[in-house]
Amino acid sequence: MKKIKARALSLLADGTVKRVLGWERGEDAFDCSPALFENEAEMERFVYGTCAGANLSKYCVKMGKAEGKTLVILKPCDTLSFRQLLHEHRVERDAFYIIGAGCTGMMDENGLLAKCAACKGKEFAVYDEIIDTEECRLPTGTEKRMEQVEKLENMTAQERFAFWQGELSRCIRCNACRNVCPACTCIKCVFDNPGSGVQSKAPVTDFEENMFHIIRAYHVAGRCTDCGECSRVCPQGIPLHLINRKLIKDMNELYGDYQAGLGDNERTPLTSFTKEDAEPGIIHERGNG
Amino acid sequence: MRKFAAEKLEQLLSGISMPVYAPVEDGGTVIYGRYEPGMRLRLDKLGTDRTPKEVLFPQWESLMHFKMEGKKIQLTEEERANEDYVLFGVRACDMQAIRVLDRVFLSDPVDTYYAARREHGTIVGLACDAPGKNCFCKNFGVDPAQPDADVVLWPAGDEYFCEAYTDKGHALLNGWDTLEADECAVTAIKEEIGKKYDALPFAHLNLNGFDGEHLMEKFESPQWKKLSMACLGCGSCTFSCPTCQCYDIRDYDTGNGIQRYRCWDSCMYSDFTLMAHGANRPTQLERYRQRFMHKLVYFPSRNEGMYSCVGCGRCIEKCPMNLHIVKVIRALGEGEKE
Amino acid sequence: MSVSNTGWTPKIVAFCCNWCSYAGADLAGSGRMQYPADVKIIRVPCSCRVNPLFILRAFERGADGVIICGCHPGDCHYTSGNYYARRRMTMLFSLLDYLGIERGRTRVEWVSAAEGAKFAKTMNEFVETVYTLGENRKLRDIRCRK
Amino acid sequence: MTKETLVPMLGIVTEVRVDTPDVKTFRVNSVEGGKCFEHMPGQCAMLSIPGVGEAMFSITSSPTNQEFMEFSIKKCGCLTGWLHQMDEGQMITVRGPYGNAFPVEEDLKGQDLLFIAGGIGLAPLRSVINYVRAKRENYGKVRIVYGARSKEDLVDYPEIVNEWCREAGIDVFLTIDQPQEGWEGHVGFVPSYVTELGFDPQGRVLVCGPPVMIRFTTQALMEMGFEKNQIYTTMELRMKCGVGKCGRCNIGDQYVCKDGPVFRFDKLGELPAEY
Predict the structure, then answer these.
(1) Does the pLDDT of residue A141 top 80, yes or no?
(2) Taking CB atoms and an 8 Å cutoff, what residues of chain C touch B255?
(3) Do the Cβ atoms of B164 and B181 come closer than 8 Å?
(4) Cα nearest neighbour of B261 on chain C
(5) What is the CATH number of the domain that holds C54?
């Protein structure tokens, strides 16, 4: 994607932007890290390609406080996160120049990323300009987004419990899922707050992992755009996005279709209501008990 | 030097009367877990998802219990480990990591919780017949072909060569049904490993200047800002690292007493040094710098040049944003070694 | 009731909103209506004050069932608190169910200040349900066991 | 010395003295009576209330005191808040002594000593001052500059006025930040008072107080001609283990709990300024 680099260089040169938030080339084809470029010399290491799996929206929260405009490269799914942050007033639109970068599905050493296998589409939710190709507009992946959630729903409660115990017991409480999440923008997380009574740094018992992951997913319910970063970064390979997707699926079914980061309404399903909402008892009537 | 047929390995492990901790699969990841006959051993896995450090220094352990009654306190210590066990299949890098932990926990005053576990374990090392692209152990004086363990195994096709180096090792090996073997075969294996290692991308990093004498120079390097920019401040590098040993001590009110426990902590966390008057490493830059400075400069400065990085490559694999120690060494160091 | 040969009785935490359900519980009490002593009531200003962490904490510390009682939809003292609570609790309980936690351990019920009898009946039912489910093992911190 | 690194011994608070509105001094004995352990001036101990927390405090009493140990503690957080609510007879856990000490038997011996303290910073120095008073023949002139926000905030005021001020060979200079009714002494910050007083750049200086005070005081001392190797200070960072293992108080290649908390200024200059 030479076009993106060239455009970034020219925006940097004419002073439209002060810095570029993009990716930096690393040791090999799959090794690239988010980085900040402030001049042409630094831009020499700029790279955009199939290794750019990381969602840069989270960095925008911090970067928005810097002086002058920041150019940020966002993939279609990343723009949803960015727009959701706009809804939440965590970033200022004026502080950023957004290049919507076309995406053909991101890879790591093991092939297409899981989040790209269930691609949500190639529309940009927010941008100043788009740089892409025809090929980038085709959806990637073949997996239906809710396929695995449905599979779990069809299990018995005991099977589900066994499945999640198996997955969550591997958690090492490194907090990568929380720290990478563009929706997790609390200044002080309840799990870091000694006064909360639930602060903990280690998976002492099974319960603590449960509690952490339930609250983590629940706290972003309605704001989670399903960007899939939580599962991508997990060093233990726990499919955390399946918890978030369950919440999304429930919200869609009970309160109408909703995609965080789309639309102009700042109200999420959990910060709004109708008088005719289903009673909580409805969960007793659905699926397997 | 002794040897035995590779197919007999599981039988040998099952025959050990003590608990055996070995690299086994746990839902897609490989951990050093309690081995039971029939489990699939993953001796092929380099940089296991969880490290053997956990056997000696678990992520969580109870230290003591308190009963509070009015103004009185009653203290009960947690019992120290007292069961012999075997830690099997430890790579040279992880073995060196255990030496690093020894430096910390066994130096005066001795940490008796760690010491008890260390004392009761017999460690069986495993030579790396196929070091991978993330390996860079030799930079830190680790020989992938010669783990510094009680017993060492060298895989060679359909057999394993083995040798015991300590009393504990001999005691273990004597119980095994092995055959006399020729030293030369192992020498050839070691040479082969050395050649494979030399062809790796990070095989020869330049560590000049990573020592106490250049402490301030490295500390003040302008590179840290760029290096740390993308750091999320998570603990995946710390918790995947075989040498990271920082811990926290906390109290938990169980409703019928107070349990004081210790758990791993990470210098990458914002509350690591937080005190009533603030934190002395307020931003991620300082915290990021602390972790790498500790491994590459502070620790060797205190420990006769022994680095607390062992080149296992786990942080290269685990960092969500691909920030890792090789990048730090290259950015701060003096280029490639000739 | 609910005392078996083992002597085990379920521990129930009931979050009751100050304006309706707590008064309902009061009415049940002053009307001498029987409901098990295993129900521990925690008064909250509104059913939407119940943070999901409260519920998880209750389970952590050994509760076997958690019930949230609030004003009937439309009757909230703060006009709309219980509408929010309704959505939140639906989502949370559905998530707990998804993680394999027994559905019967959680419940939401609308109880007005005049419904002392309903309060007693609800609690009796709920204790019964939890009793049949047995001890909460899936959501408990083992350190809190005696 | 407690043999086990992390297991504390039990102590009993035998006296609680209110020093200032936010500082109390606790007298601690072991359960059997007497002191929990011996220490040197400047060393610290980990005190804890199970369930609340554990933290490092400097031992305020002098090792020459054979009966008890004292800790002057300012209320500023969770644990200290709890400690301040304690009554006499309360058991707490104690482990230590930790860290190095002021070199009272080496470098300080035979020297004129200048103590400069601000606020609760007197706590670690009080141990040294009383040690020096007990072994008066080993040391030269003793001068003490001590400042606090107000008269009420001067820790150990009765001891200072009734004992230190009256002792021959000890000069005490007190100052408070703001003018106050009933205060006839000096008013002003410690560093400027030090400049005002003007000292011969000889002997040894021991400084402890808030970080800002330490910074400006050392500047003032340097301007007077003192060398960095004449000045000592004692530091405080977050600590958990107290034995140089948990990694928290690591600055450069030093652990404040084990290699510190007392540092000579020339040594401190070689370390990254992360304190």
Answers:
(1) no
(2) 61-62, 144
(3) no
(4) C143
(5) 3.40.50
Q: How far apart are CA B315 and CA C31, in angstroms?
A: 66
Domain range summary for chain B, segments of one domain joined by +: 2-198, 212-332
Tell me whether B254 touches chain C (CB under 8 Å): yes
Predicted local distance difference test score (pLDDT) of residue C96: 93
Query: CA nearest A19: which of A42, A2, A50?
Result: A42
Q: How confident is residue B333, by pLDDT bands cut at 50, 70 and 90?
A: confident
The per-residue pLDDT for range B216-246, each reduced to its tens digit, is 889 999 999 999 999 999 999 999 999 999 9
* Ordered alpha helix ranges (H), A104-175: 114-117, 147-153, 157-168
Token code pair at residue A253: 């079914």
Indicate if the pLDDT at residue D1 is higher than 60.
no
C143 vs B254: CB contact, 8 Å cut-off? yes
Cα angle D47, C142, C93 (rounded to 5 degrees) comes to: 115
User: What secondary structure does DSSP assign to B121-166, as a single string?
Assistant: EEEEEE--SS--TT--GGGGT--TT---SSEEEEEETTEEEEEE-S
Give domain limits for chain A.
2-137, 147-285
Pairwise CB contact (< 8 Å): B256 & C61:
no
Residue C6 placed within a domain: no
pLDDT in the model for residue D2: 44
d(CA D62, CA D39): 8
Whose structure tokens read 């405009």? A69
Query: What does the pLDDT read at residue C83?
Result: 95
Task: Give dist(CA A184, CA A61) in Å, integer.
Answer: 11
Domain D113-234 grouped into CATH 3.40.50.80: yes
Domain containing residue C45: 12-144
Per the model's pLDDT, the better-predicted residue between B302 and B336 turns out to be B302
pTM of the model: 0.91
Which of D7, D91, D250 is opposite residue B73, by nearest beta carbon? D91
Cβ <8 Å between D76 and B276: yes
